[in-house]
Amino acid sequence: MTSINWSDTAPFVAFLGVFAGAIGLPVPAMPTLIVVGSTLVAARDPLLIIATFLGALAGAFLGDAAWFLTGRRFGYRVLDGLCRISLSPDTCVRRASGFFEKRGVKLLLVSRFIPGLSLVAIPIAGAGDTRFVRFTVYDLLGAALWVSVGLSAGMLFYRQIDAVLAALRQFGLGLATVAAIGLLVWIAFRYLRRTLLLSRLRKSRISVDELSMLLANEPGALIVDVRSAMSRRDDPYVIPGSRLFDLATADQELATLPRHSAVVIYCSCPNEVSAAKVAERLSKLGFSNVRPLTGGLGAWREAGRDVEAIVLTT
Can you tell me where the transmembrane regions are (predicted)? Predict the structure, then answer.
């Protein structure tokens, strides 16, 4: 039986691993590139290196283009879906929105190097007014830089990687087995951390019905909208009487709120972790009655409650 020359499969493996990571599957794309790069040294074939680079680049762009077009089709609603399925805290969505508002599509040059950022920034670009050609240019440049770093690291440290693989074989473990175990442990850790966070925050939340009663009984209660500016542009409505806060400058604005009033925080993400984070900050600043709204603005609207258009001041 002839043995498989693993370097010959490098372009396909690079494409598959990077594409899977780009569409959001929990696949360690960068480690895959590093290992693939280490197999290219023995081949000593420049054409194979180029083919592997192009395969990885194609996987990155196809996955990113799918998310870009999804954002273009569904707008910022796609971020609600990411909030529901993401193992990362929902604040990664807010962070990506803030970064994109400041840097624009140029963020794609470096977003792959920040875990979780690329997956969120790309549908944001699609939901905005970014042209597909402009997206393509910056996405390909960023992906090319990222792929080059991964493959180069593998080729540079191939001896160390080969030593690790040889040690694994001595214990009867293949790279695929170790990768699968590591992936399962990583997913379990992130899921457990997210579950514990949501469980802790669930105790302090307020429901839509409870908020309606609060507004009826305490007209002075403060309702605070902490959605990103991009989310507000996509959905320019708020719970009546809401104050708009930007988390980037929230510390100064939060300091102006009366400490003894009831404060309800809401965002647009179904798991309302962003709102809960602000609620925690307020509690540390001395506010005694702060609660995030369960389900955010979407739950309020789905319950048939009134909303009002945002009034922009100049």
Answer: 12-35, 47-69, 107-125, 137-158, 170-192
Q: How far is CA 150 from the centre of its chain?
A: 21
Encode pLDDT of 182-224 as tens digits: 667 766 776 776 667 666 666 678 889 998 888 888 777 788 8
Burial of 258 (0-12, 13-18, 19+ CB in 10 A): exposed
Q: Which residues pair with 283 in a beta bridge?
A: none
Q: Where are the alpha helices (DSSP H) in the chain?
A: 10-22, 29-43, 46-74, 77-85, 91-103, 117-127, 132-156, 158-170, 175-202, 208-217, 229-234, 250-254, 273-284, 296-302
Triad 158, 159, 163: Cα angle to 5°: 115
* DSSP tag of 220: T
Reference 39, options 4, 16, 8; nearest CA is 8
Alpha-carbon distance of 250 to 62, in angstroms, equals 37
Strand (E) or helix (H) holding 266? strand 263-266
Give the model's pLDDT for residue 5.
52
**CA proximity to 150, closest of 277, 59, 243:** 59
Distance of CA 287 to the CA centre of its chain: 30
Amino acid at the residue 3: S
- Give the H or E element holding residue 225: strand 222-225
Q: Note the pLDDT tens digit of each residue in 130-162.
A: 899 999 999 999 999 999 999 999 889 888 877
The pLDDT of residue 276: 65
Reply yes or no on whether the pLDDT at 57 is more than 80. Answer: yes
Q: What is the CA radius of gyration of the chain?
A: 23
Strand partners, 171: none
Let me know: does 258 contact 221? Beta carbons within 8 Å: no
* 312 HSE (CA, 13 A, CB side): 5
